[in-house]
Amino acid sequence: MDDEWICGRLGEDEPWALGAVNPPVFENSLFTFRTAQELGEAIRSEDERYVYWRGTNPTVDLAQRKLAALERGERAKCFGSGMGAISATISSLVKAGDHVLVLGAVYGPTTQFLRYLEKFGVTHTHVNDLAECDSAIRASTRLLYFESPSYMAYAVVDIAEVTAWARERGLVSVMDNTWSTPIFQKPLTMGVDLVVHSLSKYIGGHSDLVGGVVVGPSRLIRPLALTEYQLYGAAMSPHDAAKVIKGLRTLPVRMAAHQERGLAVAGFLTGHPAVRAVNHPGLPSHPGHDIAKRQMSGFSSLFSLVLDTESREEVGLFLDKLQHFRIGVSWGGFESLVNAPALSTEESVRATMGIPVGLVRLSVGLEPADTLIKDLGLALEGVGRLA
After folding, report:
1. Pairing mode, if any, of strands 99-103 and 275-279?
2. Is 364 in contact with 262 (CB distance < 8 Å)?
3. Pick from 5, 32, 65, 201: most CB atoms within 10 A?
4. Modified residue N6-(pyridoxal phosphate)lysine is at which positions (predicted)?
């Protein structure tokens, strides 16, 4: 199936939509049955049958079908937040005594959740590459978790190589694909077992919803849907699912525009005397660019730069001088955003991820690139060597 057709039309022409151009939003919290036997049968398959909102809902189900098709997966399960999806997915795969390998830098709250699991006897180790994986793997290791491109540093992982390594050792691999979206990267086709996303970012696209999803084979999704999804209670609301569906309709067009503007801004920053490095996989100068071109069909507009400074105060001043980039923690919407981990991230987490003081994350939105470039140029005056 074509991605644009999946985003715009998959499941929207079925009889229950009654010809509505926008699929109906099912607001009811429960569904009733004609007989007690029908209710019993539905409860036993509550991951697929409509019983109670906490299980699933027709509007949520449509969003799940679209997301599964986009990722080329058998099934998807939507959650009330990205961390709802991540925590439920990890929990479904480990038990007391198990060990998790974390490859590269990952989303800060994911690391915090893994630390939280330590009180239940689940341990983890952060590694930087496959050589370190070979040294860190244990008999109790069950899961390999990673992002590509990685959190804040935007290093590129060779997905096929990493998943082959994990498969040979009997590990389940889980990858966060929020940065690329399924439009630009499909990890399941390269051997990843489960893919997670924050739907709050590019897929939603308008900074008006919080949601998450996990996609993969039914053998892994069904037990998660019947257990962790139900017990953790992080159910997606039908209204948020409707926003996901609307966001998907414009996702291919938006991602193309984000790519164009992001590369223009990154190109301007490359070689700027106040900038030590630009971490954007779409740039030929990026060390993972060749791998990225092989496994990705495009590049989003989230990347980082490293200012020529070791001063947190100077980083804060740079942010404050920006007029068009708004200061905020999320990304993926129309508006351009800026954030600096040294000002907002727990120092121990930042140290684990190898994030320098001068690193600044930019989310290039859909405003004109020349406006954003001018804004950055003025804010960079006086940074580091130019002071």
Report:
1. unpaired
2. yes
3. 201
4. 201
pLDDT of residue 108: 87
SS3 content of the chain, % helix, strand, coil (to 5): 45, 15, 40
The per-residue pLDDT for 197 is 97
Print burial letters for 162-192: b (CB count within 10 Å at least 16), e (below 16): bbebbeeeebbbbbbbbbbbbbbbbbbebbb
pLDDT at 352: 66
Structure confidence by residue, pLDDT tens digits, 272-308 = 999 999 999 999 999 999 999 999 999 999 999 999 9
Q: What's the CA gap between 340 and 348, in Å, rounded?
A: 15
- Parts of the chain with a pLDDT under 70: 345-346, 348-350, 352-353, 384-387
DSSP code of residue 30 = B
Fold assignment, 251-380? Aspartate Aminotransferase, domain 1 (3.90.1150)
For 380, residues 6+ apart whose C-beta sits below 8 A from its C-beta are 272, 274, 275, 307, 318, 386
Q: What distance in Å separates the CA atoms of residue 57 and residue 64, rounded to the nearest whole number?
A: 10
pLDDT at 386: 40
* pLDDT score for 253: 98
User: For domain 3-247, which CATH number applies: 3.90.1510.10, 3.40.50.720, 3.30.1490.20, 3.40.640.10?
Assistant: 3.40.640.10
Could you list the active site residues?
54, 107, 176, 201
What are the tens digits of pLDDT across the range 142-190?
999 999 999 999 999 999 999 999 999 999 999 999 999 999 999 999 9
Read off the amino acid at residue 28.
Answer: N
Give the residue from 285, 125, 106, 301 showing the smallest Cα distance to 201: 301
Sign of the CA dihedral running 127, 132, 138, 142: positive
Extended strands (E) in 162-209: 172-176, 194-198
- pLDDT number for residue 387: 42
Residue 276 makes CB contacts below 8 A (sequence gap 6+) with: 305, 306, 307, 308, 358
Query: How many alpha carbons lie under 13 Å from residue 297 in its C-beta half-sphere?
Result: 11
- Which residue ranges make up each domain of the chain? 3-247, 251-380
Rounded to two decimals, what is the model's pTM?
A: 0.93
